[in-house]
Amino acid sequence: MSGEAADDPALADIAAAAERGDLMAQFEGWTRLLRRYPTSGWALNHRAIVAQALGNRRGAEADWLAAIAAPGYAEVHCAHTNLAGLYLAEQRADAEGHAREAVRLAPTFADGWHNLGNVLARLGLSAEALGAYERAVQFGSAHSVGQAYEMRRGLCLWEGLEALEAAVLTSALNRPERTSPLVAFAYLPTTAAWQRRYAEGWASAVFGPGAPAPAPRARVGGKVRLGYLGADFYDHPTTHLLVGALEAHDRTRFEVIGLSIGPDRDDDAGRRIRGAFDAWHDLFALDDDSAARAIGALGIDILMDLNGYTQGCRPGVLARRPAPVQINYLAWPGTMGAAFIDYIIADPIVAPGDADFTERVLRLPCYQPTDAGRAVAAAPERAALGLPEGALVIASMHRAWKLNPRLFDVWGEILRQSPGAVLWQLADAQAEPGLRAEARARGFEDRLVFAPKAPQPEHIARLAHADLALDAFPCGGHTTTSDLLFAGVPVITLAGTSFCGRVAASLLTAADLAELIAEDESDYIRKALGLIAAPARLAALKAGLIAGRGRLPLFDTHGYARSLEAALLSVLPA
């Protein structure tokens, strides 16, 4: 606190409003205070925090800029930190400058270091982000432990990882808001029951119950207005999976509406998916309140959330209940734990029971769509990919954060017993030193071949040179597995204990390859070595996948669209 404003009796009213959870009363209280003390940086900063919570991003921005300019504001670093957080959410480049200024002004300010870590992580500067998070932990930030763990996983710096993981597991249940949902679901070795408990705690702490659902629209025989809310309508895995099913929707029964909460990106995939919608609305610049009102004004009957808690998500929009039916779909592998999400699209493999979901479960034969009409480039020469002639190629193609010490132990054993094989891993310049060190420790660094990132048509084409793929665990491949199977590459997977660890098992089942689903690590090794020792069997499996593009359930885009539509129609009032 600073100045006379900190001693004003009006603060008692603001405190009472905060105790009640009444954001509007808090905002009005700060506004009255600022009429008396218009240059109080401290009051401006606090009103901005409330404005942001109300969804008024431009009002919050104006107050933080005014706080930064306020004379004598001793805690100006707080305003810089908060403004950087706002700009980060809007993916604005000036987030970095404010985040760096905050820690320059207050070098021991833990929240400032944490926020700088968030900004650097979004910029892809993982090593520098890790340093910022570790500084935040050093200065007392308990909620930075999870982010430090996340960065270490992404950089494949596994020394001391087990102790850090244990600390994150404990923190995630005791104070769920301190651990990001992505880390809790995809990085930690947990069960679906654990994930539900965590997700309910996180959603309750961050959003509360959300607004009540609006009454269903009277359609009187008209089309269902089906809205897809997402941040990734561009060259992104979710778009690659979904676009064919969007194009296949029955337009006599559905009006399909795109609702973009991500920045506009002009690429081929983005243009195609925008063209797959009957109407397109760009909501990126709107705050949560305005976006929710815009969706409500469209009369959406069913709102499909394509982000869950992934990067670019806007669950605050969904918490305001713009549609009578809201569905967790495709991108988030598990429950959202939120009262304002009514259903989740799943299947019997990823969701064998209902108890692990706060949503009601709508089961399709396979929850994940596949675009059977995707473009595939001409296959490159093997030598151009750095793959040795005559070597058996085992593909990983996982993002580096999905790799872990236990997985590398298992893969190392498979490679030890397969001297003619190489491991083909998706490249990541920042993680490569760590990966090489871990492979060296297990004796296969010289058999590690990196595949640089490539556009999807080129990526699918080059996968033809892989003989076999190994799935990651505990969080396995999702779009990664779909791409491999479409390219004709058999995948060995270990069915996990949660949605995110069972996706490959779901896809293999839909590709009539359930025989490749292992029961445990020993069975995983046994199945992989058995196929490696049987090249004729491997070749037959590959040929079957290629031939099956026209008949296997996994690749039946139109059949998938009909199954999805039947599930959606089942949740609407008659």
Short description:
With 574 residues, this protein is α/β, with parallel strands linked by helices. The chain has helices at 10-20, 23-36, 41-53, 57-69, 76-89, 95-105, 110-122, 126-138, 145-155, 161-174, 181-187, 192-207, 237-248, 268-275, 288-297, 315-319, 405-416, 432-441, 456-462, 479-486, 503-510, 521-532, 535-547, 557-569, and strands at residues 224-230, 254-260, 279-282, 302-305, 325-328, 343-346, 360-363, 392-395, 421-426, 448-451, 468-470, 491-494, 517-518. It starts with 9 loop residues before the first helix and ends in a 5-residue tail after the last helix.
Mean pLDDT over the residues: 95
| Total domain units | 3
Structural class: alpha/beta
**Major sheet summary line:** 7 strands, parallel
- Span from first to last CA? 57 Å
CATH class descriptor of the largest domain: Mainly Alpha
What portion of the residues fall into strands of 2 or more residues?
Answer: 5-15%
In the predicted model, the low-confidence regions spanning at least 5 consecutive residues are none
